[in-house]
Here is the input.
Amino acid sequence: MKKTNFVAAIAVLTAILAVLGGCSKPPPTEEPVRAVKVLIVGMDTFQAGSEFAGEVRAQVEARLAFRVGGKIMARQAQLGQRVKSGQVLAQLDPQDYTLAVEAAQAQTAAALTNRDLAAADFKRYKELRTQNFISAADLERREASLKAAQAQLEQAQSQLMTQTNQASYAVLRATVDGVVTAVEAEAGQVVAAGTPVFRIATDGARDAVFAVPEDGLAAMQPGLTMRVQVGTDNTDLSGIVREVSASADPVTRTFQVKVGLNAKQTAPALGATVTVFSTAAGGAGVQGKQVIKLPTSALRQDGQGTAVWVLESTSMTLRSQAVKIATVDGNQAVVAAGLEPGMQVVSAGVHVLTAGQKVTLYQPPHAAK
Here is the structure.
């Protein structure tokens, strides 16, 4: 009996141990070792900046127009033609102005005749007055008539000069030496006084003209030195920002900037395509200096600021390193403090890593042969 109870107790104890063993937690699995891409920190020359496409224009462009209205009878100047000051560019129909001059000439001749008659009368009445044949009042009336006739003659002469000038304005002449860059009216077209007919780029100083978006306007200050590269032969020129538009273009919402090219350099052809290089905003203090650059994919925010993962090569673990960023150059960040040349920094996948984590170096798969 006692033996049977002992065997039963052993069986119950074994069952309990089996149940307890089945409920125990499995041993923890080791975290997989992650492969990471790293780069070795080195020094590089900072050459940050923005590029803008533009064109060469004259600093002074004259818009020429007739000073009187009429029908254009002839247009002698062509687009792209070089013209000299005083050269005839276009002509209006002169018939109406010729008739006006002839009418003014006739009025002047009539006024001259009236003045001569009044002068002769005054002379004769003056002699009669010396002989007391007429009163002083009669002589004064003749003198007044002479003065009125003289005034009418002067008025007619002024009118003749005005009409002569109007007739000469029917011929449009170049006022400067330069190149015709636009023709805005053709023969047979009726134009009003002041309507632009030609645009002439004057000889002399040249501008590189380009447009910048609103977010780049702060870096465009008058007096800033820029590098200008001519597209045709890659010639490098220097220039200074001369003018920045105060308002945006209503269509493109960009601002026009004019860079005056160095007068001592050979000016490129008008209309030539150029590329203008400007210093990036925030990078003026390190432009041309030796700096540390990192891809922006290596940066992360850890609550204390910007940081990167540095690989400890002896233990193959990661540690967080705070860095200070000076500026951004495209897809690269310029590090002002926190890193030294020779350090190994994780360059990708930084947001899934932890401090002290063991890692291996990523090995790109070999292409199949």
Q: What stands out?
A: The longest helix spans residues 95-130. Residues 56 and 271 are 5 Å apart (CA to CA). The chain has four domains: 34-47+286-361, 51-58+204-278, 62-90+170-200, 95-168. The two ends are 80 Å apart (CA to CA).
